[in-house]
Design goal:
It is a single chain. The protein is of the alpha+beta class. Helix content is about 30%, strand content about 25%. It has an eight-stranded mixed β-sheet, sandwiched between helices. A five-stranded mixed β-sheet has the order 12-11-13-15-14. A hairpin with a 5-residue loop joins strand 9 (about 160-165) and strand 10. The longest helix has 23 residues, at about 1-25.
């Protein structure tokens, strides 16, 4: 029963973050939201991130049950020491909760595309607590100003996903049927390798072209048959798999940037991928470049490389080719 209560709490937290960001747009403009507030070891913190950070502390102080003491792991608070609710020694906490308040900051602060509030919680195991220990996760959409609907997906490990939509204006909820694609091939669908920034883009694109050429041949049809979509949000990418829009997404930035001799701070971190449990519970395939679970400590700095396929059949088709390409081009 406690896991279901935790799922509900993480959903409520996501609701609170969403509402705080939506409300903040009424009094601010793009210039204000996109101002740099802080440069952390993991990423750049923008003004809009500070809004969500304040909302999180407010919510935990008011709503987190003292009977389930928790440590919070979140970008931007690393220098404060351990953050717990209630305020006790981290050694006395039962849970470790990793949060990305706004995954997709760069998109939402310019009102271009939805961001997502992400949260995952695991039994407290100190510094050895890992992504694979997460037993409850929830992701909540932070919509653009022109959207009327914001979606939310959550899960308790082993119990499947729960999805619902929220009407921003009517304040009503509706159950949302989500299902990854059952396509048997990648043709005429969306499949992407992450290349959000100029750094490493040429190498990533070369790998991508090689994959599709080996599977289907490039230039062999009258028009392109594989479509690319660069959604600058790991949570957003997970959602595109969950709802059946995308068939493959590969985020190999840690390996690509290392190969290029570049700084690897702007890569996927554990707080970005803390909702991977949802992919697994929905039946999608989520793995690292070598076919294992993309594990990492629940921290804000460890790099995470991952590949997700909408179904096992697609993974069987592409996995051996991708792994060979990675071996030859990145290692």
């Amino acid at each position: 029963m406690i896991l279901e209560e935790l799922r509900s709490l993480l959903c409520q937290l996501g609701d609170h973050i969403r509402d705080a960001v939506v409300e903040s747009r009424k009094d601010g403009d793009i210039t204000t939201r996109s101002a740099v507030a802080h440069e952390s070891e993991a990423d750049t913190i923008y003004a809009i991130d500070k809004i969500s950070e304040a909302a999180i502390f407010e919510w935990f102080a008011k709503h987190w049950p003292a009977s389930e003491p928790v440590e919070i792991v979140m970008e931007g608070i690393e220098d404060q020491g351990a953050t717990t609710f209630p305020k006790i020694s981290v050694n006395d906490t039962k849970w470790k909760c990793i949060i990305d308040p706004i995954d997709g900051t760069r998109g939402i602060m310019y009102d271009k595309r939805s961001a997502w509030a992400l949260a995952g919680i695991a039994p407290q195991r100190g510094l050895v607590t890992k992504l694979s220990d997460i037993v409850v996760a929830a992701m909540t959409e932070i919509p653009t100003s022109k959207q009327w609907r914001a979606d939310q997906v959550s899960a308790v490990k082993g119990q499947g996903i729960i999805a619902q939509s929220f009407d921003i204006f009517k304040k009503t909820h509706q159950q949302l049927p989500l299902k990854p694609s059952v396509a048997s091939d990648f043709l005429h669908g969306f499949s992407s390798f992450c290349k959000f920034f100029p750094e490493g883009r040429v190498l990533t694109s070369s790998m991508e072209e090689r994959l599709w050429h080996e599977l289907y041949g490039l230039g062999s049809a009258k028009s392109p048959r594989i479509f690319d979509d660069q959604y600058i949000s790991t949570g957003g990418q997970f959602y595109e798999i969950l709802c059946g829009h995308d068939r493959l997404i590969a985020d190999l930035r840690p390996l690509v940037l290392k190969k290029c001799g570049l700084d690897d701070s702007l890569v996927c971190h554990p707080y970005d991928s803390c909702c991977a449990l949802l992919l697994q519970e929905a039946g999608a395939i989520y793995e690292d470049p070598f076919g294992n679970f993309p594990d990492a400590p629940l921290d804000t700095t460890s790099p995470v490389s991952w590949i997700t396929y909408a179904n096992a059949g697609l993974a069987k088709t592409a996995r051996p080719v991708i792994q060979r390409i990675i071996q030859e081009m990145l290692l």
